[in-house]
Amino acid sequence: MTDSTVVVRVPATSANLGPGFDTLGLALALHDEVEATLYEPSSGGSAETAEVSVEGEGAGEVPLDGRHLIVATMRRTFDRMGLPRPSGIRLRCVNRIPHARGLGSSSAAICAGILAARALAAEPYAAAPRPDGTAPAAPPSPPEFTDDDVFALATEIEGHPDNVGPCLAGGLTVAWTEPSGVPRMAKLLPHADVRPVVLVPEHRLSTETARGLLPASVPHADASANAGRAALLVAALTGRPERELLLAGTEDRLHQGYRAPAMPRTADLVARLRALGIPAVVSGAGPTVLAFSTGDKQDLIAPEVGNDWHIRPLDVETRGACVVSPETR
Ligand SMILES: Nc1ncnc2c1ncn2[C@@H]1O[C@H](COP(=O)(O)OP(=O)(O)OP(=O)(O)O)[C@@H](O)[C@H]1O
Ligand SMILES: N[C@@H](CCO)C(=O)O
């Protein structure tokens, strides 16, 4: 059986955008690329095998075996599609999205794994034996695994849809969950004058830690304030952006304040930029800061940022995650 390979390209994302906790997200033109191959291990393979190489972000840190997030996600996707797991998965990862900084690295890895598995399932592959050692059934024809299925599985693995939505669709997404538990999203395109700048610190904060700081309930007035600001922000980002509207539309009372003790330098930088009239928020679960630069205030950003932060102006990515080679779908 011949090896089959796909290359998947996935963007960074910034979630929340201030008031849109677990709802709003924006795709950014900074990408990870993953070459995924299904192969038959030379030993004949009594178990599932994985070989991973990583260049760039996360190199020397993430596991290089079956515990790697993309490998684990690919196996879970084969399970979800009702197909036998492949016996060998080989990954070559070129990572540009910093890890645990609030730029959606885990979401990008999960989306990459699901899209790679879906594309590779379309070709014959060597399947691993079942856990009881018996031979797997011949892979049936791959089932239809829709874009909605991809979004639902990625959200299930990631735990929230606001990074997954823009990672898959590109642009600005509004995500919500149906009463049945099914996640949904609507995609919008921000105005071409929307200019995101991310300010990325060296230090990290895991999403899990940041979520642990949130209270179980919030005052009704705070929820109401955020609803209004989130609606305003969508209008401000999709129309010609006006700084005053972006500033008002990026105010938040639901998460940034509660998380500030875990990222005091981020909270301080957001406060200083906002005092200068620059719309700035915590990107995702932090500690990166996302600012929307507007011509008149742009030059004020750099002097506020310390030497150990990277200032990165990034375009909005309008396309989202895709299989770039071969074009199988
Ligand atoms: N490309 C990748 N390959 C393997 N593991 C990854 C990859 N990207 C992220 N991870 C895993 O996910 C962890 C980071 O996930 P986490 O949810 O804490 O932060 P984030 O996704 O970068 O930020 P946020 O969710 O706030 O935007 C990394 O420490 C690593 O364990
Ligand atoms: N909405 C999520 C984004 C993190 O990826 C959070 O703030 O916890």
UniProtKB/TrEMBL annotation:
Pathway assigned to this chain's UniProt record: Amino-acid biosynthesis; L-threonine biosynthesis; L-threonine from L-aspartate: step 4/5
UniProt KW Transferase keyword: yes
Ranges of biased composition (kind: Low complexity): 46-59
Domain GHMP kinase N-terminal, chain residue ranges per copy: 69-171
Enzyme Commission number(s) of this protein: 2.7.1.39
PROSITE patterns: GHMP_KINASES_ATP
InterPro entries from the UniProt entry: GHMP_kinase_C_dom (IPR013750), GHMP_kinase_C_sf (IPR036554), GHMP_kinase_N_dom (IPR006204), GHMP_knse_ATP-bd_CS (IPR006203), Homoserine_kinase (IPR000870), Ribosomal_Su5_D2-typ_SF (IPR020568), Ribsml_uS5_D2-typ_fold_subgr (IPR014721)
Protein name (Swiss-Prot/TrEMBL): Homoserine kinase
The organism of origin for this protein: Planomonospora parontospora
Gene coding for it: thrB
